[in-house]
Each structure stands twice: as C-alpha cells, then as structure tokens.
Write a structure and sequence with these properties.
By secondary structure, this protein is α+β, with helices and mostly antiparallel strands. Helices cover 18% and strands 27% of the residues. β5 and β6 form a beta hairpin. The longest helix has 21 residues.
Length: 221
C-alpha cells in the first residue's frame, strides 16, 4: 500500500514539473548562463581564455554593469552615453583574430562584438576630428587614427570563444585592434573621445612605445 502512495506521489510531482516547464514558470532570479568556451571555430584551433598573461597596469577591473556607461564624446555632432545593453544593441559580428603581445606570447581567439565604426557613425565625428582616444576604468588609454577605425572592421568585443568576457579579459568591452601590438588592445573601455590631436600618447606610448603600434614595426619608438 505504501509503495502505491509513493508511486502516486512521484507521478504527481512529475506532472507538476511538466506543467511548470510548459508554462515557462521560472523564479524571477533565474538568468541564462553563458555558453561554454569553444575550442575550435570553422576548423581553426582556438586559444583558451587561460592562455593570456596578466599584464594590466592595475590588475583586473571589476566593473559594476548596472551603473556602467560608455561615454562617446569630443569632436562629435551627437555625443552619446550608452549603457552596456545599448552598446550590445548594435549589429553583432564575430571573427577569429590573433593577439600578439610584445612579451612574446600570442593567442588566437574567436571574438564577438560591435564594430567601432558603427558607433562612430552614430555620433558623427566632426570634420576636424582625426584621432580616436580610448579610455579604460583603470586609467589606461591609447589612441588610433580615425581612418584606421573607419576603414577597417575593428571590433569592440564583449565575448570571446562564445563566452562573455571575464573581468580578467576586459569585461565589459575589449578592443580587438587587428594588426596592432597587444598594448593597443585596450580592456575595460568606458570612454571614447574624438580628438584633433594625432600625437596623443596613451599609457605605454608615453613610456617609449610606438604611437602606431603596427605589428610589422618595432613596438619601441
């Protein structure tokens, strides 16, 4: 008799679970989890998040995403102050790009993010603007010619290998500065400024590194 009651109770529980699932009744605290990091993409073997070396100027930054804003200002007709989700509302792109560090190591990563030039198109750089300066939450900065970002598919990434950037890798956004040395790949981006100063020197540039950061040139001035 007891076994019958146990079997009946089990059936009732299963039926209740089926109803909850079919009605999509979930606790309000339930959030989707990131995809597992992929190790291969279209036949290309990918490096792991763990293959990076920690060499930031103040250690990993832990950004509060609820209060985060990306400020885009300077010599623009339409300055903006984006939330994290508003940046992600731009068209998303992904591609594999290799990062080469001046320390001698490199990683091959599948990046996903938005094109910097799409953001620039929305803020409308003034005719006098020729330089784009990126700033990070740890005080780091670096710059690029405006035409480099307008004429190339340069991503500001929020995912790597199909998973959201961890704090160590630049969450919420890291620049995927193709054809540039790793010190130009700024992490924890919180501001983009349009400037008319092509000689602006960021953190490492002011310490003897090349302003252009081109991979086919020495990283030293």
């Amino acid at each position: 008799m007891i076994k019958k009651y146990i079997a009946l109770a089990a059936i009732v529980i299963i039926m209740l679970l089926a109803i909850v699932i079919s009605l999509d009744i979930l606790p309000p605290s339930t959030i989707p989890l990131d995809s597992v990091e992929v190790t291969e993409y279209q036949g290309q073997k990918l490096s792991s998040v763990n293959d990076f070396h920690e060499n930031s100027i103040k250690g990993p930054q832990y950004v509060n995403i609820t209060s985060y804003h990306l400020e885009v200002d300077g010599l623009v007709a339409n300055p903006k102050n984006y939330t994290y989700d508003q940046v992600k509302d731009f068209q998303s792109y992904q591609k594999v790009v290799k990062l080469d560090c001046v320390e001698g190591w490199s990683v091959n990563i599948l990046w996903q993010g938005v094109l910097v030039k799409d953001i620039l198109n929305e803020v409308k750089p003034l005719a006098t603007a020729n330089t784009v300066i990126f700033y990070a939450s740890d005080g780091y900065s670096t710059s690029f010619p405006l035409e480099y970002l307008q004429n190339n598919q340069i991503l500001m990434a929020y995912k790597m290998n199909n998973a959201t950037l961890p704090p160590e890798r630049g969450f919420p956004f890291q620049l995927v500065a193709e054809s540039k040395w790793g010190y130009k790949w700024i992490k924890w981006i919180n501001r983009i400024e349009l400037s008319d100063n092509p000689n602006y020197q960021g953190y490492w540039e002011s310490r003897g590194y090349s302003l252009s950061g081109n991979l086919n040139d020495s990283f030293l001035k």
